[in-house]
Here is the input.
Amino acid sequence: MSVSIGRRVGRFIGIAATAFVMLSVFAPSASADGAGPTNYESRIDSIKPTVKGVRIEVLGSEAFLQVSAEPGVRVQIPGYDGEPYLRIDADGSVWQNRNSPAKYVNTSRSGRTTLPTDLGDGNDPKWEKVSDDGTVAWHDHRIHWMTNETPAADANGFVQEWEVPITVDGTEVLVTGSLYRKGNALPWPALVSIAAAAAIAIAVARSQIRFVSPVLIAVSVIALLQTLIMRAGDPPGSGTSPVPLILAVLALGCALVSLIPKLGLPIVGLATTLASAALLIGWLVPVIGVFWMPYVPLGLPAVVSRLLVAAVAGGALGSAIATVLDPDSVRPRAH
Here is the structure.
């Protein structure tokens, strides 16, 4: 009787720990501001007049506009009101005007921010160095869609044109482009992949191995690697949240802790196992759109990213289900 009660108490505390972790991590993990799954793609159509020594490109499908200048080339990038905002000097140093409203508005993809109360006149710049590599990227809100309403698009997905002015070695240059949108796809391949991964996790837990931790360790490593690859594609200073990386590391840590046989009460293994699964579910929040959105700028081919994220989702879900149904599956089966 005491064993049965202990199992029930352990299951209850494990579920409570899971709920606590999920509530704690869902909101901050969703605030990651790097490139992620999206319905939109922004393309550069022309750069007029043609200038040498400068490379301009869109990163993350539509998340960032990036300008790179070769040594000896000077670039000036105005803010939305024409005030000095960014500049690249001939020696490759990159500077940002602290008095430009664009500095603050462009720190997030949404553009929602509170300007400093002591913000000075943007035309009286206060320059601060941000790098020395001759490259700067920012969330330019002219190149992506800024409202929650779905825009009208033609048969080719075209939504609108956009333009961004810059100055290169004293020459005024106009960068023009177009924004496109594609609708969501039915996520049935993702659902099949998730179901398969969950079934494998449950089968492992209920087989002769009868142990869920190896599954959680494997999918935590997948989540960690996908995060590192994904973040490697974001430009420096992009404001990318570290939360997804923290979640993946913590999930791996909890899964490893559950392997320690001398922790005392079985409840510890139960709690750490469920916490690992919950952390992985929290990790999924900012990338969940990978399953149905058409553009997947996560650093790998779209099909590979979708399969990896599905493995994490299915592995975490299956491990949680197996653990709740059979708390003994958190420990290796005695032979």
